[in-house]
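**User:** My hope is that you can spare some time for a protein that puzzles me. As I understand it, each token names a local backbone shape. I would be glad if you read both lines and explained how they fit together. The protein I mean follows directly.
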Amino acid sequence: MKETRKPQRFWHARFSHARFWSYLATYLLLIGGALLTLIPFVFSILTSFKTEKQLVQDGALALPAPVTFDNYTSLFTDHAFIVPLAITIQVVLVMVIGQMTSSILAAYAFARLRFPGRDAIFWAYVCTLMIPAVVTMIPLFGAMSTAGLRNTFAGIVVPFMLGSPYAIFLLRENFRSVPQELLDAATLDGAGFWRQLWSIVLPTNKPILATLLLITVVSQWNNFMWPNIIARDPQWHVLTVATAALQTQYSANWAIVMAATTLCVLPLLVLFLLFNKQIIRSIGITRV
């Protein structure tokens, strides 16, 4: 018995030792990836609290000494950054309300209603995901210009305020997972289309709805290409375009640029912290 136990202990010790080094290598790799991801944010935040002279003399990653808020003050006094901030918030609100409402209704129709050509229409719409967004910029610009929507708020939001194919596809698959027996029971109790959607389907899909909300906010908050094309007038600049405008061909105050960048990122970090639990739950449910 002793001779048989020794090999078992030996192999168990070797396995535990190998597992330890495997875990160590995995965590070191993850820590390295996290550092590579965080360094640009640290660079942005540290630089935003320095003067341009400090940045040149001390370097980007040196601690600001002393800490100054002049860059943030300059954004709102000298560069009127309050206007791009207000426009961006309005754009995000309109986009979120429009895209979430239309995506939910379209996804529920594709998931639960029966009508001729339902699946064909759905897959044709989803196939538009394979079309690069940049391909549609010129036709959209021509259409908006013909409609007289250049340099207007409507020109920024109208082309993209309805449901996205990705959101409709994801919601449809989740709505189909709601048990049909539950909906049939609600129908017997007198619940109609809207009551079933509002009281049963949406509450059971809160994690994925929170994730889609965050994705929509982030994508529209960071949108640069279309607002830069359709609204060249500074009075309609969103935050991303206004931040890019702080840099010129021949000069750029990188301390002010990094302050604007930090200002753009901060609301998204707060939003992620607020919806952190829902996002993690959605990953566990949908694997996305």
